[in-house]
Amino acid sequence: MEDIFILQSLLIINSILVVDLNLMVLLVVLRMNFFYLDVSKPFKTTDSDPIPWIDLTFTGGPLKTDATACIGGKNNDIIFIFGGISKFDDLNAYQSFVNQFDTNKQQWINITSVGNVPTNRFDISCANFDNGLIAIFSGNGLNITNDLWIFNTLTLTWNLNNAINAPLPMSGYCAVTLSDGNILYIGESSARKSAVYMSMNYSTLGPPPPSRQLFSAVLSFI
Ligand SMILES: *[C@@H]1O[C@H](CO)[C@@H](O)[C@H](O)[C@H]1NC(C)=O
Ligand SMILES: *[C@@H]1O[C@H](CO)[C@@H](O)[C@H](O)[C@H]1NC(C)=O
Ligand SMILES: *[C@@H]1O[C@H](CO)[C@@H](O)[C@H](O)[C@H]1NC(C)=O
């Protein structure tokens, strides 16, 4: 429950990005600030006790908002940040579509992939799945369709997936990888539906939550 409390309190802040590493570390990128929180060590989560953030701003890093972050690499110790906006008045100004942060070397790299690559987009939510792959669906930006892209974090290459029955273009949604390998896409900005399931034919039980956008969700086994 403590972890969930921490996530909820973080989400109050605007333009924030939270990554849950397998290493039990939370990372946050907010404008030019970059912090991490080691949740493998106990700490108090009451209002009067400061959360023990560790400042990594000195490592540099991209200036972005409305981006998304997932982990990857051979040991799942690399953070990949996709898309986002670097300048609110110019959607073509962005600092590399993919930025990589190596948590061991504490080093940033702008990743440039060649060939068929996604156009820049924001208000997306990435989803990790098997073998270091990350899925990115649709998003907001110029000429964005309901395209499903797969980024291979081992080879740093992109593949456009032939997603059958893909939902309509959406942004502001949240992607969650379920334990059966399917990706759940919740919410979206067009408010067409409150939940869209992809690659699955499940139907939800009970009344769905009201529609929403630009939020975050984690899979919990409590
Ligand atoms: C990444 O690209 C941006 C924009 O061109 C640049 O400002 C930044 O220094 C680059 N970062 C690295 C680590 O190369
Ligand atoms: C979007 O489409 C227009 C019209 O085809 C084109 O001129 C423009 O370059 C495209 N923009 C991007 C970012 O692909
Ligand atoms: C999902 O259900 C729809 C409607 O029942 C059906 O047409 C479709 O073939 C099903 N898709 C899969 C992948 O089973």
Automatic annotation (TrEMBL):
Keyword set includes Transmembrane: yes
Keyword annotations of the record: Kelch repeat, Membrane, Repeat, Transmembrane, Transmembrane helix
Organism: Gigaspora rosea
Protein name per its UniProtKB record: Galactose oxidase
Transmembrane regions listed in the UniProt entry: 6-30
Pfam families: Kelch_KLHDC2_KLHL20_DRC7
SUPFAM superfamilies: Galactose oxidase, central domain
Domain of life per record: Eukaryota
The keyword NADP is assigned to this record: no
